[in-house]
């Protein structure tokens, strides 16, 4: 019996590591990439759309619709991360522009349509947000009828421990904390299972310089060369000999769940704190204690939080996919 590929939809702010994730989702034979929605985050949304189209065209996947979504957070002031991802948001590689154009629908409409079709087909999608959760919050609150079309949400964002955008908060949640709170609350309301691939695991699957060189050496302006160049960009920018594949790790979860260890934990998003705004407060207390005396009570949202990852396993998965060593599509 052959297993059908898992239908998957990515929400991105491409983004060097979003590009790494897109390459994997576009090329791995266990995945059926149905659509990509774009949101402002690492770069302004128009750059995100341009970058996303470039990556998919490089992977030979011009069949995948790409739509422009929210250009700013629901409430917060946008702050991009071009100091991390380069002026064009994707490593300033001078990569050729895509010929394909974006889908005319707003990203939320594209997500709505794809989820409804998946529900009708009886093959719900795995939704993988790798960016601020603005589009996802808008989708789930505006069109809650999409729930039967979503098997689960595996998102990159948050942290049980330290942040990166601030000492407390991870970038995707920090960028639009209200959206993160709404998206998680709505998903829990609608009975959509949630897995958080946050900073506790995000930096561990790294690609060493030698493997990046191997990828670049394939050449031809193809996916391997692009993936290797994105790692090289990070190594050069941060003066390292290995760099994270970042968001691509969340896509690895969909292909190979055994690469992470998760625990189902209550989670809240801090919206009011000054120093801690955007923090995901992951409750790791032992509840044999006295919950009745906690004035906050238990958070209503439970998330499978990734606390450990087999980094080498995910690195291998990503590199082998880009080198075309995991079977033909
Ligand atoms: C996340 O923020 C962005 O910089 C990356 O693309 C990733 O999604 C890490 O905090
Ligand atoms: Ca991202």
Structure in words:
- The chain has 329 residues and is an alpha/beta fold.
- The protein has helices at 16-27, 45-58, 82-85, 107-121, 134-142, 171-175, 177-189, 199-202, 209-218, 223-238, 248-255, 311-322, and strands at 6-12, 31-38, 66-68, 125-129, 150-156, 194-197, 206-208, 242-244, 260-269, 280-282, 302-309.
- It has one domain: Inosine-uridine Nucleoside N-ribohydrolase, Chain A (Alpha-Beta Complex), CATH 3.90.245.10.
- The strands form two sheets. The chain has a nine-stranded mixed sheet, with helices on both faces.
Tell me, what is the CATH class?
Alpha Beta
- CATH fold group: Inosine-uridine Nucleoside N-ribohydrolase, Chain A
- The overall average pLDDT, rounded, is 95
Helical residue percent band: 25-40%
> How many helical stretches?
12
CATH homologous superfamily (4th level) name? Ribonucleoside hydrolase-like
- What ligand molecules are bound, each kind once? beta-D-ribofuranose, calcium ion
> What overall form do the CA principal axes indicate?
globular
Largest sheet: 9 strands, mixed
